[in-house]
Amino acid sequence: MSYIMVDVEADGPIPGDYSMISFGSVVVEPSLSKKFYAQLKPISEKWIPEALQISGFTREETLTFEEPQAVMEKFLLWIEAESSGRAFFISDNNGFDWQFINWYFHHFCGKNPFGYTSSNLGSLYKGLVKDTFVNFKHLRKTEHTHNALDDACGNAEALLHLKEDFGLKISLK
Length: 173
Hints:
By secondary structure, this protein is of the alpha/beta class. The protein has a single domain, classed as Ribonuclease H-like superfamily/Ribonuclease H (Nucleotidyltransferase, domain 5, 2-Layer Sandwich), CATH 3.30.420.10. 40% of the residues lie in helices and 17% in strands. It has helices at residues 49-55, 59-62, 68-82, 94-109, 121-129, 148-166; strands at 2-10, 20-27, 35-39, 87-91, 118-120. The protein has a five-stranded mixed beta sheet with strand order 3-2-1-4-5, with helices on both faces. α3 (68-82) packs across α4. The N and C termini lie close together (6 Å). The model has no long low-confidence stretch (mean pLDDT 96).
């Protein structure tokens, strides 16, 4: 099984009504060399300026991004090529990130290669240290910039830290 860390930037709170603007993913392994990044053209006329501003893009810029159908097809092929066995979705905020990736995969590809499950990195860390009032974000090496690939890499670094220094039993193939 391959853990694939994913981060999503969007122009609103839910898929369908709003659009996934960019996402980054990385196979969680020591080299962090298997990466995927995409910018997607909006699928909706609706967008929230404050939500879009977080990503650092303007609405005009997003209208020049790649068609979502082509992006999701490329991402599906990348997952199939880069994962060893089943691909497992993990993110910093899987309640947000998962809903967009899942919706886009089902809408544009008819299936989600991650299946029906995901994990939350923050919850994993809280359980590991037995404290629901802490967060893992200090374990990142890569700065959290709201560039989806940077953020996915930083979160993958944190997961590797949990394995190496906290003794998390996880198979990273």
